[in-house]
Structures are given as structure tokens and as C-alpha cells.
Structure prediction request, 356 residues.
Amino acid sequence: MSRFFSSYYRELTPYTPGEQPQDMPYIKLNTNESPFLPSQAVKKAVAAEIDKIPLYPDPECVSLRHAIASKYGVSLNQVFVANGSDDILNAAFMAFGNPETGVAFPDISYGFYSVYQALHHLPAKIIPLKDDFTINIEDYVHCGAMVVIANPNAPTGLALSLDEIERILKTNRDHVVLIDEAYVDFGATSCLPLLQAYDNLLIVQTFSKSRALAGGRLGFALGAPELIADLSTMKYSTNPYNVNRLTLAAGKAAVEDDETFQHNCDVIARTREETMIAMKEMGFSMTESKANFIFAKHDGIGGEELYLALKAKGILVRHFNDPRIVDYNRISVGLPSQMSTLVAALREILTERNAL
Ligand SMILES: *Cc1c(COP(=O)(O)O)cnc(C)c1O
Prediction:
């Protein structure tokens, strides 16, 4: 830390992204990216846009927002887009996190929530998941704070029902309830049907997981026009051109190409189920993931030991040091061929340890 670093931020512990090592080619199953190539439509759209790169992009992102609005059946003023959903989470914590009441979120969830909460100096209400890693809805009823929940949750993959989310919305009318649907396309239910009835609901989604654009950095939020206007105020107070021209073009093409999107999501969901069956036969216990990852542990090997053994074989998965989940690894669902390689590697590792 330099001696110039603001005292306002001195206590900050930044987010640790999953590793992106460049030393050798790995099978990357550690950051929940899409294993698919961009569609032809996306490639074409980006190529067609490149000559305009000397010019600033549309700060209102109108044509992309139109495409999202029509896909999800909402109006233009209910759609906000930003440089990845992280950018949206940051704006939302800034806009809707109240310094008196703060923000509530589960103890085991997306690691960035506690970073944004600390960044914006908000009181935190960190609510433990139950022992089986499910969310106890009653903990969030009348909780008196902004609520942030990933649905499905990460890294557990467990999803809430619409009724459960509605109960949180109903009992927290004076606070924003942010539902982070980064993984919703792989088998959970979106709370989009609740959008018109609840002006405190903010749905956040990303193009990074189900739409194969993690490197493009694009996220979007759906909510009441007033919430969207507030996010826009934050954007115009920080970085109005936060979504670049190539990403706007890629995102629009990706939203309009519903066939590729559906196909890719179906393949991931099917591959997840097939991989889980194979892992179950090997003795892994896993949560009932509705996401594009598997959350698994094995009695015959520690979480970190398994992570390191896989890495030595060129397969990256994500291990977290949090004591509640230290026995687990989060394994992104890749292509069927990558998952076959994973299953074979797991079998070797367990055999070597007489744990099969
Ligand atoms: C990956 C992820 C994000 C961030 O997505 P970006 O759009 O790439 O910034 C947000 N929330 C959750 C729960 C995620 O897993």
C-alpha cells in the first residue's frame, strides 16, 4: 500500500478471481465460463463493427437494450446494461445500499458481495446457510436491509423457488431485493414473472456464463424503471461508456441467436447430469446443482488435495478456503469430452489413494 492510499479504503480486501494461468494449456473448469465458441452471428457482428472502433459507443446502449427488452418481454426503460454483471452489482450496492440498514446476503455465496459491501462501507448482515447449504427463507423475511441472493447460489448451485423469492420481496417492500441470476439459464427458474408486481426487485444476469461472452464483459439488469434510472445515475457518475462497441454488437447478436443459446444451455445441463452420475459412482457427494458447475466432495481425499492433484494433470477447478466448504471443489461443466477427461482423471487420483 502506498502512503497515498486513501484512509477511506485502507481496510479493503479485494476480490480474488479464479486463476487464469498462462504457463500451459489447461482444461479450465474453474471460472464457470462457457466452453463453446461464439456463434457465427456473434463473430459477424463483431467483424462488422470493428471499423467504427474510433468512435465512442452509444452510452445509452439502445439497440442492445431493445434486443434484451424484446427477448424478456419488458420495456426499454426496465433494462440496464453494464461492463459485466460485476459492474452492475457495484452500481446496485452503491445506489441501493443504505448506510443505516446495510445489506444482507448468505455467508456462502458469490465472493464479490462482501467486497462491494465493504467498498461502499455498508453494514453487513451475513446470514449463514443451513447445514445442507440451503437458504432459510425465514432469515430474510422482514430483514430490514437490501437483500442480495444468487439464484442458483454459487458455489452450491442450489436454487430457490419463485414462491420463496416472492416471500422475500413481499416482506421487504422498502428495500431492494437483488436476485443475481448469473446461472439461471442452466435449469433454475427466473423470477422475471415477479418483475411487474414488485418495484423492489432487481434481476441481474450476465453474458459470461450461458452466452459465451465472458471476455466481452457484459451484464444486464431488469427492474422497475425507477431502479434502472438510479443505476443509470451511478453509471453516468462513474463511466458512461462502460460497454464498448464490440461488446454491444456481440451482445445483441448473442441475444438474438436464441437457437444457439438454448442448444448450448441444454448441452451443459445434460453434461452436468451425466458427469454427476459418473462422479456419484466414484463416491462423490454433490449438491443438486442447477448451475453450470458441480459442487463436490469425496471422503477419500481433501478438497485442496484434489484440486492440486487435478491441476497437476492439467485440469483446473475452483477450491475455496472457507472452512465450511473446504472439503469441496467447484467444477465448471465443460464440453462432454472435457468432462470425460475429468472423470478419467478423478478415477486415477482416487485409485492412487485407494479411495475408490
Ligand atoms: C460470474 C458471476 C458474476 C459476474 O459475472 P460477470 O458478468 O462476468 O461480471 C456475478 N454473479 C455471480 C453469482 C457469478 O457467478
Remarks:
- The chain has a mean pLDDT of 97.
- The longest strand covers residues 201-206.
